[in-house]
Amino acid sequence: MEEKKSSFLGLVPFIVFILIYLGTGIILKMKGVPMAFYQLPAPVAIFVGVIVAFLIFKGNLTEKFDCFLKGCGDQDILIMCIIYLLAGAFATVSKAMGGVDSTVNFGLTYIPPQFIAAGIFIIAAFISTATGTSVGSIVAIGPIGVGLAQKSGVPMAFVMAALIGGAMFGDNLSVISDTTIAATRTQGVEMRDKFRVNLVIAGIAAIITLVLLVIFGKPEVVPEVQEYAYSLIKIIPYILVLGLSLVGVNVFAVLTLGIMVSGIIGFAYGEFTLLAYAGEIYNGFKGMNEIFLLSLLTGGLAALVRRAGGVHWLIEQASKMMKGKKSATLGIGMLVGLIDVAVANNTVAIIISGPIAKNISEEYKIDPRKTATILDIFSCVGQGIIPYGAQMLILLSFTNGAISFLDVFPLLWYQGLLLILTLVSIYIPFSDMYLRKHPWNFETGKAE
């Protein structure tokens, strides 16, 4: 049975994890190692934290191990892990059958060349929303963006800033994104509900960004119109998954159907055989191994930390600065944002802060759908502006040193607008119309 006590010692294992993960990245970065913050696998760092918890927490080994296993086997943790596997399989199979290439080329075909920067933002936003990965969006569009910037006369930093902005838009909103899955499962809410709240804020930020990109992003020379090969049929799986998710179809059924439809299209176009199709599904599973293991181990460690009083201590300290719902909501955002800056991974930041945020939400009666939105937005804003995040590192690598982070940072308009609008929404809840129509019942844990 979980002990109702408060102890800073209970947080030490989490602090050890963050220090090891962050410290390793800093040291490797100083040595010039590429992708320094991604060299140490996060599951290994969190495992060290687990060992520390077993060493310093009171109780016999059997009691601590039982608590750890209950945390690993928590229903929300297991659901999150299965969704990760299915999302990875869908993304991998869809890419293998040519879905990403067709989507990129479709956008480039129909977006007028004089709107290059705005077009790059739109394409990146669609791809990252459809595929659930900002990194994948940047990898797919980055080389094209560099070429268009060179030919058009639009400053490369401008185009690259538009690209990472669009990629983070989708990362934040996608129903198959790691961040969305983690944010909704840790708070026990439906993806579609979080999407409806999130879209109001992100949509306004995106519209303002597009207006700015159109005004200030006109090329000096309009490049020649090129023909890009695409297939509308290969875009169908993304639209299908997005549409079914938004109308409330069970996420397991949606992703499984998406995998099947992508497979059928791949067979029809001769992109892979039955065995190759099975191989791509498994490759998708393997691609989620790190986040799968991290989620399991974090769930177990979180249970140990709660038992030792670490979560209660943190809530007590935070409560001294929290005077009500608004300050508590802001506190949740700052917590996940700071953790993201520390670990350079927005999904990891949400997984770590999610259980703590849930406790704070229950304490201050904050709608968990709002909490899930705050977790996702603040973590994505942090991830979209730090110079050592995977998104920024990959983005700049495509430019071959032509621009630096300092060139791109002042042009990260979408991330800045998203943060400002989110802060405004905390104190002037313009995004909570849906929540007011369907208020949350804290006794039943469901919307009315």
Topology:
Layout: H1 12-30, H2 42-56, H3 61-72, H4 75-96, H5 99-110, H6 116-131, H7 134-152, H8 156-173, H9 178-187, H10 191-216, H11 236-246, H12 251-268, H13 274-287, H14 289-307, H15 310-319, H16 325-343, H17 346-364, H18 368-383, H19 390-397, H20 405-408, H21 413-427, H22 433-437, E1 440-441, E2 446-447
Helix pairs in contact: 1-2, 2-14, 3-14, 4-9, 4-12, 4-13, 4-14, 5-6, 6-7, 6-8, 6-10, 7-8, 7-19, 8-10, 8-18, 9-17, 9-18, 10-18, 10-21, 11-12, 14-17, 16-17, 16-18, 17-18, 18-21
Radius of gyration over C-alpha positions, nearest whole angstrom: 22 Å
Report the β-strand fraction as a percent range: under 5%
**What's the arrangement of strands in the largest beta sheet?**
1-2
Percentage of residues in helical conformation? over 70%
Count up the helices: 22
Distance between the termini: 31 Å
- Characterize the largest beta sheet: strand count, sense, and whether it forms a barrel: 2 strands, antiparallel
Backbone structural class = mainly alpha
Classify the oligomer: single chain
Structural domain count: 1
Average pLDDT for all residues: 85
Low-confidence stretches: none
**Helix/strand order, N-terminal first:** HHHHHHHHHHHHHHHHHHHHHHEE
Shape type: globular
Number of extended strands: 2
Give a verbal description of the structure.
Strands 1-2 form a two-stranded antiparallel ribbon. A hairpin with a 4-residue loop joins strand 1 (440-441) and strand 2 (446-447). The model has no long low-confidence stretch (mean pLDDT 85). Helix 6 runs parallel beside helix 8 (156-173). The chain has one domain. It is mostly helical. It contains 22 helices and two strands. The protein starts with 11 loop residues before the first helix and ends with a strand.
